[in-house]
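In the current project phase, our protein records have gained a structure token line. A sample record follows, to show the layout:
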Amino acid sequence: NGGHSRRQLEFLRSKLMGPSSPGMPERIYISREDSQNGRRLTNEAELFERLEGLGFVRVVLSRLSHAQQVGLFTSAKIIVGVQGAGMVNHIFAPEDAHVIELHPRSYTNRAHFFTTNALDQTYQFVICDEDLMGSLTAPISRVIRCVERVL
């Protein structure tokens, strides 16, 4: 429950990270459009339209190899996404990165809060409404306020 230590995270980074790749996006929105386990955003198109206007790139991590995912995050300054396994990639982002995680109202996971703190990254979360099928609706104005805090 206490998360991972900085030493553990640095070990993973040393084994899996290469040099940062030039030209990689600094603002990443992680889409779960192909999720088989729920937590898809019903208003993702509207949210991403707002994020894209702020310079975000939308990625579907299941379409990328692990090495491509690691490379993508090495230059990330702001990461926005729904709670899920893809968010763990923030450990490959720079120390001054900002993570904004969208949680379902029924369940919050503190793992990324602990790992961002261990890596000197900042962390914010937004609680989303969910339907009976596990799809989420993000309060877009709150997400944008979180992003604007770190721009």
